[in-house]
Amino acid sequence: HGVKLSSLGKKEEVEDNTDENMEGALIARDRVGVQDFVLLDSHTSETAFLNNLRKRYQENLIYTYIGTLLVSVNPYKELDIYTVTQMQLYRGVNFFELPPHLYAIADNAYRVMCSEYNNHFILISGESGAGKTEASKKILQYYAVTCPTTEQLQIVRDRLLLSNPVLEAFGNAKTLRNDNSSRFGKYMDIQFDFKGAPVGGHILSYLIEKSRVVHQNHGERNFHIFYQLLEGGDKDLLCWLGLERNPQKYAYLIQGRCAKVFSINDKNDWKIVRKAFSIIDFTEKDIEHLFGIVASVLHLGNIQFEEDSNGHAIIRDGTQIKWISKVSLLRYPLNVDLAFYARDAVAKAIYGRTFTWLVNKINGSLANKDSTRKTVIGLLDIYGFEVLDTNSFEQFCINYCNEKLQQLLIEMTLKAEQEEYELEGIEWEPIPYFNNKIICDLVEQKHKGIISILDEECLRPGEATDLSFLEKLEEKVGDHAHFVTRKLADQKTRKSIDWVDFRLLHYAGEVTYCAVGFLEKNNDLLYRNLKEVLCNSKNGIIRECFLLSELDNRRRPETVATQFKNSLMSLIEILMSKEPSYVRCIKPNENKEPGKFDDYLIRHQVKYLGLMEHLRVRRAGFAYRRKYELFLQRYKSLCPATWPHWHGPAAEGVERLIKHIGYKPEEYKLGRTKIFIRFPKTLFATEDAFEFRKHLLAMSLLFFFLPVSRLQAKYKGCLGKREYQKKREAGRSSGTEDSLLQAVLSSRSCCFGRFLWLASVLAWPAGTGKGSEPCSRAPWQGETLIPPRCFQYVTPVIKYDRNGFKPRDRLLVLTQSSAYVVEMAKIKQKIDYATLKGISTSNLSDGIVVIHVPEDNKQKVENCDVATGGLWLEARACS
């Protein structure tokens, strides 16, 4: 037997007889929906999907499976399901054996990796605020707690865990939807040795949102590190950097008008980041240079320009310059607009490349120098599909990324399903689903895709603008079914599209993009003279980020969109070489409110996360599949031919079993090693029959063992009488007095030992529940009813009620100071020896003892058979 969590989080005992056990889902389906959406009877109904999700969410069951994919709904409150005890509960337990959990996904990937020595990845996706970053951290914590460890490995684990707060500080920010939103994509490989111990790691980052450094929408913040430095940095550090604590003093921090956020403790987060720097092996010089860069970005944002008499930009106030350029001052003629553009471009370039340097530095501390082969589990925490009021270049890249990952998910799921069908000899049934390759091609196709057209406009000579880019799109992809502009739209659609917009019909739905800023953001140009300045910086990190060799390279750098496309292609290749696991995170409402389930918002996410598509593919015509041995082991009691033992091949046993149950041919298929059941209702009917059969079996076992127990009691009674006869005859026969006494004492010792044990059980520490009420009313007994060390003598007696003389079983317990009459759950009476008036005994063989007690004691009549070492006892109120 093993242990599982019930639907309410309680431990229950379960039979540990399956490696892919859906039985928990079957039993719990009426109370909290189904734990696996594959078992939904109406698996094509979005409404049924949402109803099941809602039912579970309202019971604080935030996890549900679709096969091996985990759907997670953000609870927006702390749940007691991430403790070390929970981690150990899921450790080494087969998938589906316990209720759905993030730990089950993590443990399954780890166990398969260790047993098959192959690589895995866990893809965590969802929209901002759905809980992706938290899920990634929970998985890391799970491996840190449950994997083998040594002192050296503990250092690696600490660095893996503490890389998170550092990357969050520099890569996360408050947005309208999420107070801790990741503004970059992250893929982390955790490396394991042959023993399954984590020995290293490597991180890849994607598309840091550099534009946030210089501009934030209303209600949003810049990256966390700026506020952490101002709030948590000590006075001397801020003085050395030329900073003030008030974030309102810095232009790059006030645009969103929400520098203070209730849910964020910048001062405490600063302490965690400082601690992480020391553990990740940053030198003091590295930290000094890093904070110098953060401060320089703030000072750079405060530089303001005005126009001189020649139309050139001049710096309005030079006080900020001394904190940015302490050695030399170079002059380049620019107008005011270009000067502001150059200022922001430098700030973005410095921050973006510093973030890349930071990731590389962390990778250096996580690198494992051992050349032996290692297996890896990758964690992909990447931005979800984004649809904002105004969608720009960043949303275009993010949604393109989600299109590619959706394509990967469907392809790998279909591939896995087809491979299983082929192995089992089951005919593959085509599955209707939306293939989003047509959209991926629209974006990425060479010479014809949107990215290629955007690059052409950025690189061509002449005056290229965002409007000329839009016109080129209309010319080259205007006839595509998933592309529309105001010019191409019909009368009804035209009203919702502006002249500078274009609309793409993604797999998740329509998204309207504003073309303004596409060319500038795609070019991401930094003037050559500014690069020269940065290459000669005294800051060591800046010099590493801006190499002099760049100045010698006359080739134009790749555009941002092309770089992102290439890095995404490389990521897809990495993922295709590994075994996948998926976590889809859902945001239940926009207000981060616990318990609130917004149907419209969740329906939208279910659609753009492709959950219904995945469910259709995962069902693949069959709701349930199980190995013959496991199916037979569970349900063999339903057929007389297979119960209690089947001695032939398991496949034949299953065939006999389902024929007896009455499965119809269209309800199932038999593979080489598994049975495939098409409809959930067939499975549920089988499970209900099994539950009913269990009760019948329990009753039959009870009727079988009851006569046996009576026979045993009769036999023991005969043995007792025989022993009694033997001892009575021994008393009449000749023999020494000592041997007779020894026989009696031996018999009494045996009986007394058993009664002493029973009394000890009755003296177990009392709790606070209903059964322990007498304890709370008896101040003289302390924490136990009767201290076991005080027992002098214990014997069973029969109590007779005062009225009617109804017999009741009791124990009489004698201690050094008192006598107790004890029932199974409570002490019925305590008699202090000091209060006794006297004791009288009967001179007959009736075993009566009369105890004379004060008037205020209750009257008791107790009885036992004197021949077996007991006594009769009658307690009367005597004056």
Automatic annotation (TrEMBL):
<feature type="domain" description="Myosin motor">
    <location>
        <begin position="33"/>
        <end position="691"/>
    </location>
</feature>
<dbReference type="GO" id="GO:0016459">
    <property type="term" value="C:myosin complex"/>
</dbReference>
<dbReference type="Pfam" id="PF06017">
    <property type="entry name" value="Myosin_TH1"/>
</dbReference>
<dbReference type="GO" id="GO:0006897">
    <property type="term" value="P:endocytosis"/>
</dbReference>
<keyword id="KW-0505">Motor protein</keyword>
<protein>
    <submittedName>
        <fullName>Myosin IH</fullName>
    </submittedName>
</protein>
<dbReference type="GO" id="GO:0005524">
    <property type="term" value="F:ATP binding"/>
</dbReference>
<keyword id="KW-0067">ATP-binding</keyword>
<dbReference type="InterPro" id="IPR036072">
    <property type="entry name" value="MYSc_Myo1"/>
</dbReference>
<dbReference type="GO" id="GO:0051015">
    <property type="term" value="F:actin filament binding"/>
</dbReference>
<feature type="binding site">
    <location>
        <begin position="126"/>
        <end position="133"/>
    </location>
    <ligand>
        <name>ATP</name>
    </ligand>
</feature>
<dbReference type="InterPro" id="IPR010926">
    <property type="entry name" value="Myosin_TH1"/>
</dbReference>
<keyword id="KW-0009">Actin-binding</keyword>
<dbReference type="GO" id="GO:0000146">
    <property type="term" value="F:microfilament motor activity"/>
</dbReference>
<keyword id="KW-0677">Repeat</keyword>
<feature type="domain" description="TH1">
    <location>
        <begin position="746"/>
        <end position="879"/>
    </location>
</feature>
<dbReference type="Pfam" id="PF00063">
    <property type="entry name" value="Myosin_head"/>
</dbReference>
<keyword id="KW-0547">Nucleotide-binding</keyword>
<comment type="similarity">
    <text>Belongs to the TRAFAC class myosin-kinesin ATPase superfamily. Myosin family.</text>
</comment>
<dbReference type="GO" id="GO:0030048">
    <property type="term" value="P:actin filament-based movement"/>
</dbReference>
<feature type="region of interest" description="Actin-binding">
    <location>
        <begin position="568"/>
        <end position="590"/>
    </location>
</feature>
<dbReference type="GO" id="GO:0005737">
    <property type="term" value="C:cytoplasm"/>
</dbReference>
<dbReference type="InterPro" id="IPR001609">
    <property type="entry name" value="Myosin_head_motor_dom-like"/>
</dbReference>
<keyword id="KW-0518">Myosin</keyword>
<dbReference type="GO" id="GO:0005902">
    <property type="term" value="C:microvillus"/>
</dbReference>
<dbReference type="InterPro" id="IPR036961">
    <property type="entry name" value="Kinesin_motor_dom_sf"/>
</dbReference>
<dbReference type="InterPro" id="IPR027417">
    <property type="entry name" value="P-loop_NTPase"/>
</dbReference>
<dbReference type="GO" id="GO:0007015">
    <property type="term" value="P:actin filament organization"/>
</dbReference>
<dbReference type="GO" id="GO:0005886">
    <property type="term" value="C:plasma membrane"/>
</dbReference>
